Amino acid sequence: MIGKSKVTITWLARQFSDLQSIRPLSQGGQKQVFSALHPHDGDVVLKLMHPNADIKRTEREIIAVTQVQSARVPKILGCGTVNTHIGTCFWFREQRIQGPTVRERLSNGPFDIPLLLRLALHVSEALAAAEDVHIVHRDVKPENLILDRVGDFWLIDFGIARHLGLESLTATANAFGNVTWGYAPLEQCRNIKQEIDGRADLFALGVTIFECATGTNPFRAGARDVLEILRRVEKGNLPRLQLSFPSTGEFSDLISTLTQRHRIHRPRSAREAYEWIKEICDKEGIQ
């Protein structure tokens, strides 16, 4: 599946006879991703895992998406295994959301205020739903957020989600946790497991909102390597947002609080953060 072992569209069409218009979307070290049309489910995404992929993490991803009851998270519609020329591969099919990722949308420049507020509202709603079932996404970033054709945001890719009620899959002895550098908070970077909860996702959301508002992520911009990014996260907070709209002061306070270096200074829960954001959005007429 990877490199010379990629599966072909013709082979996929034979294995998944219920899918039509199969097209490649992306591939990485763990999986290949395809778009397709299903007779009952409509537009879908088919994810085909490499035989050497961490199957436990794949199973955790499916459990997470199934348990998180949110209209902002694409639904998993089917899963199973398929035999390939390089071994047995796990696959799952999920709802496809048509639209650009936030990273792609940022290529057009910073977001306007209504779009920025909708991002904050919709993603915090998804994170509150995850927190309700004791799941930490752990990888909130522009690449894992999609803006659909009607202006709603979706949270995708629970591939490294932490299930607080299950044994951790990340080795405790690891110096660093599973992170995207520049979005993860200090406790996640340093793999301090007992401190990783929903407030880690709030930090990542705050950084993402800041980047969407300004077009830059100060933790990452110009950094030589991940160690410099880590030093920035350890030693400094983000600059205060300077925006211009009626609730700008309260919104800037919100982002500053979400991105506090120490989790004790962030909102106590994703639900609390969502309610704060919703209050601001209500004042601005944003849903």
Write the SSE topology:
Blueprint: H1 9-15, E1 20-27, E2 31-38, E3 42-49, H2 55-67, E4 76-84, E5 87-95, H3 102-106, H4 113-132, E6 135-136, E7 145-147, E8 153-155, E9 162-163, H5 186-189, H6 198-214, H7 226-235, H8 248-258, H9 270-284
Antiparallel strand pairs: 1-2, 2-3, 3-5, 4-5, 6-9, 7-8
Helix pairs in contact: 4-6, 4-9, 6-8, 8-9
Q: For the largest beta sheet, what order do the strands appear in spatially?
A: 1-2-3-5-4
CATH architecture designation of the largest domain: Orthogonal Bundle
Number of helical elements: 9
- Separation of the first and last Cα atoms: 42 Å
Q: What number of domains?
A: 2
InterPro entries: Kinase-like_dom_sf, Prot_kinase_dom, Ser/Thr_kinase_AS, Ser_Thr_kinase
Protein name: Protein kinase domain-containing protein
Domain Protein kinase: 19-277
GO cellular component, one term: cytoplasm
Characterise the protein shown here.
The chain folds into 2 domains: 3-95, 2-Layer Sandwich (Phosphorylase Kinase, domain 1); 102-284, Transferase(Phosphotransferase), domain 1 (Orthogonal Bundle). 36% of the residues lie in helices and 18% in strands. The protein has 9 helices and 9 strands. It is globular, with a radius of gyration of 19 Å. The chain has a 5-stranded antiparallel beta sheet with strand order 1-2-3-5-4, with helices on both faces. It has a two-stranded antiparallel sheet with strand order 6-9. The longest helix has 20 residues, at 113-132. The protein is an alpha+beta fold and 287 residues long. Residues 19-277 form the Protein kinase domain. It comes from Desulfosarcina widdelii. InterPro entries: Kinase-like_dom_sf (IPR011009), Prot_kinase_dom (IPR000719), Ser/Thr_kinase_AS (IPR008271), Ser_Thr_kinase (IPR053235).
